[in-house]
Specification:
about 190 residues; alpha+beta; 2 domains; 3-stranded antiparallel beta sheet
């Protein structure tokens, strides 16, 4: 039971510290990407040993229907074969064939603009009710170094050794680091 309690408490500390570090690094990577276009940073131990790299994974944008009524009306007017009318008791519903909508949105995503080219006529349409919006936020990926001719240890092993030696405690999880020895005050007692 002691092991479970101790590991549970440590896990809470590690998760909180990891979330904070990930947020800080993501912010730094996003800023670096905006200013210089670069999207990679080296992960270094306090002594300067490289243990890996962190890369920004790009956010993605996609065509999304933002006004279903405007989009459905446009499809009805320009691609009537893809417009569906359903009559249910006391109600008429209209929609767009899902497969066609998916294909049209994919074409607009690829073009990066809410425009659709009618393959039969070659006519280009500005599509109402569709916008290109972020569909996936930027993220990050940590890659550890591998063993090599110059290092018999991979990045994970180097991090583990730095942790065991105490080199990371104050940098990574200060709440778990050994407390600093008390500072003696040279001033005479009053």
């Amino acid at each position: 039971m002691t092991k479970l309690a101790a590991l549970g408490a440590l896990l809470d500390e590690v998760k909180a510290a990891y979330a904070e570090a990930r947020t800080d690094v993501q912010h730094h990577l996003n800023q670096q990407h905006k200013t210089s276009g670069t999207s990679k940073l080296d992960a270094m131990l306090p002594g300067g040993v490289k243990v890996g790299s962190v890369s920004r994974t790009g956010g993605e944008k996609a065509a999304q229907i933002t006004d279903p009524d405007a989009f459905t009306a446009w499809v009805r007017d320009h691609f009537p074969s893809e417009h569906v009318v359903e009559i249910v008791p006391m109600q008429v519903r209209t929609s767009v064939r899902p497969a066609w909508a998916a294909q049209a949105l994919a074409a607009m995503t690829a073009a990066g603009v809410p425009r659709y080219v009618d393959e039969a006529t070659g006519e280009m349409h500005d599509v109402p009710g569709v916008e290109i919006r972020p569909s996936k936020a930027a993220g990050l990926r940590m890659t550890y170094t591998r063993k090599s001719k110059t290092s018999a240890y991979d990045g994970r092993e180097l991090v583990a050794e730095a942790w065991r030696s105490g080199d990371l405690a104050a940098h990574v999880l200060p709440a778990l680091a050994s407390p600093a020895p008390p500072v003696e005050d040279d001033a005479p007692a009053a």
